[in-house]
Amino acid sequence: MASNNHSLAVRTSWPVLAMLGAGLLAALAAAATNETALLLLVLALILMLPFLPVVQELFRANDADRLPIPHVRDVESAQLNAQLLGALRARAAGNSQRPRASGMLGSILDRHWDVGARVTHQSEAGVDRGLYATEKITIETGSSLGIAVAEEALSIMPGASLSEWGYGRRVEVCGGRLDGTVVGREILVSGDCTFRRLHGAAIRFGFAATSAASTLAAARDENAGPQSLPAPRNERQTIRGDHRIADGEVVRADLVGTGTIVLGQAARIEGSIKARRIVLERDAVVTGCAFASIELTTEPGSRIHGVAAVDGELVMNGGTIGLPGRPVSVSAQDISVYGAATIHGEVRVRRYGEFRHA
To answer: pTM for this structure?
Structure first.
């Protein structure tokens, strides 16, 4: 990306800046005993004033570096889930020998586990327990469970809570509270809920499991197949203050803004974007990544193909982040989703995540 080239330019400029500083100090020492030299030095400094913004830009490497993605566990959700499934399948097959495991996996396997085929959990006293089903698990309204692992489907009813880990090839969240990690090939969130960490090939907010829209979206993703991000571009544009990209305009560059950048309807950035605030209006597209220090807002039909990271709040009033077959990470201090939105990859919330119907 252009930001990497810029950071390299800044690093290589340090020796030059050090030499200039040493020369300036030597000139000041000589000028202290020579009035003519002092006058020439003052004149040189005045002539350099127009170039101060350039010097400032050299020192501002941080405006081109991406915002940090929060630290996560060394073991990724998908890898940990595969290890957990292997151990539980062996236990269900009658192998009582516990596999060697440490860290989070060891902590999960040390719990008391109940095993069944199709299980409905209806208890509030299940936070310290694990439940494994060869087919489906349903966590009923008002129930609490620590760990739920189902080979086929996991359903979480309104008012239910899952505190640590959940997996199902298909996860249906009709409401409730998800305080831990939920992993699934497809996660459908149809009811008001809170969440912390979700991982799936497709995470669809505002889609009911049996809705025509959900079926159509899944078929469209499957037909699209794996996609790749565009090759990085070297061009970089710095935008001072607030700026709006006109409806339908195409920008082929990486944008770095000091204020708010608004992408008008159907506007397109073929590159990445970073600013204090970013707004993608209806059908706007960013083919790279998006990094915001305060807020990132997406409207229906908008798309971000790459990573999205926000130091503040991500507000999704619709739109899509990621590509089918090309999962990305989405992280923010807070995430609020209203209406139909899709994320391909992993969602990480540092403080509070919620879905509410529009």
So the answer is: 0.73
